[in-house]
Automatic annotation (TrEMBL):
The keyword Cell membrane applies. The lineage of its organism: Bacteria, Bacillati, Actinomycetota, Actinomycetes, Kitasatosporales. One of its GO terms (molecular function) is ABC-type transporter activity. The keyword Glycoprotein does not apply. The chain crosses the membrane at residues 21-41, 61-83, 104-130, 142-165, 177-199, 229-247. Keywords: Antibiotic resistance, Cell membrane, Membrane, Transmembrane, Transmembrane helix, Transport. It holds the Pfam family ABC2_membrane. This is Transport permease protein. One of its GO terms (biological process) is response to antibiotic. It is found in: Cell membrane; Membrane. Signal peptide: none annotated. InterPro entries: ABC2_TM, ABC2_TM_bact-type, ABC_2_transport, Nod_factor_ABC_transporter. It is a multi-pass membrane protein. It comes from Streptomyces muensis. Belongs to the ABC-2 integral membrane protein family.
């Protein structure tokens, strides 16, 4: 526990001293939110509902997707941070020290989860400022927070593995790019039913769409669907286990192996 807390403190200090990466990744979802609401909002709302243009309805639709995209963006920062540690040699030094090896990875994960939750609060605040009006009970808010935390842990463990296998920070950024692209191919911006028929199964069963639909239902007090909830939990648990085992195996590899 002492080693975990030490590594957590180290990663939080790094984030405070070098905030540019976090800010750059945070700006992307905020800009997309403002762009789609104020430029495309009326057109998109009319296309989705088939009725008159209503930007307010589209804000309610798009904010959950942007929140999930924020998690993907901050996970890219995690991959870059881990790759930086690898290339700078600090990971090799940690391997020789009398500390828990797992604490190095856990420190990255815990630090990134904290940064992600803070980023989510900022993006949600922007959404509320431009007209997002949730209709969730206190229990649904708690469930939504738990869902966001669960998705964050899953994607960050995958990002840690990506950072460990990347030759440099630039490679890690490129390798983790799908974490930002996949939300664009989900139900974040338009319903799955509006997509081409051949692509709908891909969009429906990829990790982000079930999580977005579940979060949307929790925040707006609408129907979630058992399938979406089960897919979300299944994807999160599966990615967490996969990311942890992958990261542990790569971290324990000796240099040059």
């Amino acid at each position: 526990m002492r080693d975990n807390l030490t590594m957590l403190r180290r990663n939080l200090l790094h984030a405070r001293r070098y905030p540019s990466l976090t800010l750059n990744l945070l700006l992307t979802p905020v800009i997309l939110l403002l762009l789609f609401v104020y430029i495309f909002g009326n057109v998109m709302s009319a296309g989705i509902t088939g009725g008159p243009a209503d930007r307010g309805e589209y804000i309610a639709y798009i904010v959950p997707g942007i929140l999930l995209m924020t998690i993907g963006g901050t996970a890219i920062g995690t991959a870059v941070s881990v790759a930086s540690d690898m290339t700078e040699g600090i990971i090799a030094r940690f391997r020789t020290m009398a500390i828990s090896r797992a604490s190095v990875l856990i420190g990255h994960v815990l630090g990134s989860v904290i940064q992600t939750l803070l980023a989510l609060a900022v993006v949600l605040g922007v959404g509320l400022a431009i007209g997002f009006r949730p209709n969730a009970t206190p229990l649904e808010w708690l469930a939504a927070a738990g869902l966001l935390a669960l998705v964050s842990v899953a994607l960050i463990w995958i990002a840690v593995g990506m950072g460990l296998v990347s030759p440099n920070p630039e490679g890690a950024s490129n390798l983790a790019l799908p974490l930002m692209v996949l939300p664009l191919l989900s139900s974040a911006f338009v319903p799955v039913d509006a997509m081409p028929g051949w692509f709908q199964p891909v969009a429906e069963y990829q990790p982000f769409s079930p999580a977005i639909e579940t979060l949307r239902g929790l925040l707006m007090g609408s129907e979630i669907g058992t399938k979406n909830a089960l897919l979300t939990v299944g994807w999160c648990l599966g990615l967490t286990v996969l990311g942890y085992l992958w990261s542990k195996a790569r971290f324990n590899d000796e240099p040059g192996s």
